[in-house]
Amino acid sequence: MSIDFDALPVRRVPHHVAETADQIIANIAYHEAGHAIIGMTYGMSLAQLCVRTVDIDGYMGWTGTTRWNICYVPHFQLAVELAAGEAASKRWMTSTGMSEHTAARHAASPHDRDMAIAALAESNYTVTTDGTEPANGTSWARAMDAADQAVADAWQQITATAKALIATPRHVLTGAEVAALTGITNPPPAA
Which of 70, 130, 147, 189 is least enclosed by beta carbons within 10 angstroms? Predict the structure, then answer.
């Protein structure tokens, strides 16, 4: 499956949440670091992750991307990797004092859930949103629970990666840089 990362949704800040540019960058950095670290722990080959500005109808907006080299992982692990961005963002927000309910609402990433549903459906693996557990798949709730646990287990590496991403002038890190920073192996791309 080929994904056009530039066509993915841009993070729009809800009107009820007052965030500074630094808070938006940090939130997206933790989200992308969650994807990167959990994917790497599952053996995925990280190309790069970034936070960048985009134009939305004449206004500056923010988005982030985690780009992978060609790699293969079990279906459930891919669902968890896609859920890990939301889990990391939610964990970071609660660490700043936001209530868990507000953080969960604000961290919600339907684009990652929708990508899991679409990408895994191509392999006849079903991801449900109603909580049911299909014989040939999983529920998004189960993937989120596993992501919450994986993010908790790797929080030190996720935090180090997010802080480094925030500190770089262009908000870009390569897979090699993340591996050097965290000690997690970044495997070569699959042939």
Answer: 130
Prediction pTM value: 0.89
| H helix or E strand, kind and range, residue 64 | strand 59-68
What does the alpha-carbon distance between residue 110 and residue 27 come to, in Å, rounded to a whole number?
A: 16
Go through the domains of the chain in sequence order and give each one's CATH number. 12-182 (1.20.58)
Per-residue pLDDT at 7 exceeds 70: no
CB 45 within 8 A of CB 188: yes
Q: Are 56 and 71 in contact (CB under 8 A)?
A: no
Bridge partners of 50, per DSSP, are: 65, 172
- Kindly indicate the confidence band of residue 63, based on its pLDDT and cuts at 50, 70 and 90: confident
Q: Are 33 and 49 in contact (CB under 8 A)?
A: yes
Using CA atoms, how far apart are residues 10 and 123, in angstroms rounded to an integer?
Answer: 27
User: Going by DSSP bridges, is the β-strand pair 46-56/172-174 parallel, antiparallel, or unpaired?
Assistant: antiparallel
d(CA 191, CA 115): 24
